[in-house]
Amino acid sequence: MIVSNTSPAEKNIVPAWVQGLAYAMIGTILLWFELPVWLSEELRIERLNGWMSGRKPDWLPFVPFLILFPLCWFGFRKKRQRKSPSRIAAWLNESPRTETSLGTAWIMATIVFAVAFGMSWRMSLEFEGLPPAYHDEYSYLFQAETFVKGRWSYPSFEANPELFDQMHVLNEGTFASRYFPGTGALIAPFLMLGMPWLGHQLAQAFAAMMIFWCGRELSNTGTGLLAGLLFGLSPGLILFSNLLLAHHPTLIGLTLFLWSFLRMMRTGSTASAIVAGTGLTYAMLCRPMTAAGFALPFGIAFLWWWISGRWTVIKRTDAESEPTSLRRRNRHIIAMGLPLVLGFLVIFVQNYAITGDALKPPYQVYTDTYTPRHVYGFNNVIRGKLQLSPKVIDNYDRWAKNLTPQLAIENVQTRLVNSLRWTLGVIPLLAVGLIFLLTLRRGDRRWLLIGLSILTLHIAHIPYWFTGIMGWHYVFETAPLWLLLFAEVTRRLFTQWQASGRWAIKYCWLLFIATAVSVNLWTIAPLWPAKLDRGVVEVKFPRQKYASFRERVETLRGKRNAIVFVLPDKDDVSMDYVTNPPDLNGPVLVARIKNREQLLDAAKLFPKRVLFLFDVKQNQLTSPTDK
Questions:
Q1: CA pair distance 173, 161, nearest whole angstrom
Q2: Are 223 and 213 contacting, i.e. CB atoms less than 8 angstroms apart?
Q3: How many domains in the chain?
Q4: Could you report the per-residue pLDDT of 273-304, keeping only the tens digit for each?
Q5: pLDDT (tens digit, 9 = 90+) per residue, 154-213?
Q6: In terms of domains, do 54 and 190 share one?
Q7: Angle at the Cα of 382 (from 379 to 387), degrees rounded to 5?
Q8: Is residue 94 situated within a structural domain?
Q9: Within 219-325, where are the H helices?
Q10: Domain that holds residue 510
Q11: pLDDT reported for residue 616
């Protein structure tokens, strides 16, 4: 139960017509996607012989809710006498404005932390003993290994640097990851402990806990608890917490920024401004564009407050009667801005150490040198063709599509649908999205910034041709915002149903939530395959291929140091076996050659290593030196 006692001002917080419109919308969507399947004999037979909900169970599992909702709305209604709320209900209704149950809130925050970490750790067992899956992960791991040695970069292999060209690793005199330093800095200490994924799993738990505090700050403890638990049970968030990508490190910074900024708006605390600036700075050191897109609405509100002295996004009853003094506003500007200045200094130092130019990041140099068609902006392929260098990774570079307005619209649609699908579900989040838009003026006006942040993060990535890993990773950081909105709309609905005496419909909504979580986490044959299970299969496939390659090399080399020359498959851009320690001093080195004729000349550079050749297209590992 999210809320049980209501104030008179909230008794019509979600009017009946808004609920009816949301119901009509999800009903229309369900019928639009499901009716054609069951009216087609071929598709109907396929469903009956396979998964009844299809391989992407976005629609059919929610049909029971569609049937039950009007029955509960019209059939069960009872006016109750007002009574004092239970102790649990009182706890769930606590907010930072009362703070009489802060100890209980911390207990709930700890539960959220434990659930999120437990789900992430349990998922890690599926990948136990397997290496990373994506090119980007190996680059971040390379960065962490470099940081462990106390360095920004290593020198390239002097005799023939191109042998060790690695995806997303700059190899132009300096050998360094192309990425910004925040992610490698998180991985490094856990890499030293032999548990490189643990940092991301802890990040999952920390971010879930911070979302609890954000929900409590914006509404009440019950809203925070629901948002935090759904964060810990979200299939996309669980899956990505077991990938060595930049998203979870970024979430550490962004969730800390979000909570601190919201608290600063309410209390005027300078300490909160410092914490908010620190969180945003760390997010910037991981994914700068994502940090900017996420924080843009908050930045505009902050700038307006600095100019006018009033938080006009907050209801007038909550605002200060007098504008904040200019001295205090300037103090907040310094408190928020100083961490950002220090963050930019870190980036400038990294740039200078790797590229020799404080204003030229390794990311840009890598794109210009190896993948010019992957450049940000429209007509990327046309512009990239004009900037081709001799070191372009041709097959990977040609993978890029030319971004046109039509492709941009398609990408936005793909990112939106997949972000809903992997966060909680398309139907649940579409429903609450509509209700939220139609009740914007209800509750705390700071919720407007949450909705705008989702919008600006999508807008920031419109000028990029790729939809992202699993169709959504560029807008991954919208996931916690969607879950906050879901929890808040649930609170508003429960408030409305409590006031109107529609007690049964609350249990119908809980069934709605349970259905979404079940579809996400548990495969139920023959009804649906769990989204999380499908994600595991997708990620496990490349991990197993990389593991198989390394196992074959280890089996053949015995106790000898080895050099494996890889002959790539030009038709496959998803797999790349050239990964090495940054000092090129491991027992096994993996190098890249363009053709077999290069093999003997390249082998002469490594006289103390046993030679292997791996033909990716043939999936064949041989030792040319064996008789």
A1: 8
A2: no
A3: 3
A4: 999 999 999 999 999 999 999 999 999 999 99
A5: 999 999 999 999 999 999 999 999 999 999 999 999 999 999 999 999 999 999 999 999
A6: no
A7: 120
A8: no
A9: 221-232, 235-240, 247-267, 270-286, 288-308
A10: 8-80+411-521
A11: 93
Shared-domain flag, residues 291 and 200: yes
Q: Which two tokens stand for residue 116?
A: 């999120």
Of the CA atoms within 13 Å of residue 448, those in its CB half-sphere come to: 16
Q: How far is CA 283 from CA 253, 270, 451, 551, in A?
A: 5, 20, 19, 37
Do 416 and 283 sit in the same domain of this protein?
A: no
Q: What SS3 class is residue 122?
A: helix
- Residue 1 belongs to some domain of the structure: no
Query: What is the dihedral angle through the alpha carbons of 443, 446, 452, 456, rounded to the nearest 10 degrees?
Result: -160
Q: How far apart are CA 487 and CA 489, in angstroms?
A: 6
**Which of 468, 491, 521 is where one domain is finished?**
521
Are 491 and 564 within one domain? no
3-state secondary structure of 392: coil
Cα–Cα distance measured from residue 336 to residue 330, given in angstroms and rounded to the nearest whole number: 10
Six-digit token string for 306: 């600095």
Beta strands in 142-235 (DSSP E): 154-155, 169-171, 174-177
Closest CA to 466 of 422, 407, 541: 407
Task: Please tell me whether the overall predicted TM-score, pTM, comes out greater than 0.70 for this model.
Answer: yes
Contact 250, 287 (CB under 8 A): yes
Sheet hosting strand 610-615, strand order edge to edge: 588-592, 562-567, 610-615, 620-622
What is the CB neighbour count within 10 angstroms for residue 359?
A: 10
Q: Are residues 269 and 226 in the same domain?
A: yes
| Residue among 133, 524, 176 at smallest CA distance from 353 | 176
Listed range (45-59, 231-245, 356-370, 448-462) with the worst mean pLDDT: 45-59
Could you tell me which of 204, 349, 344 has the C-alpha nearest to residue 281? 344
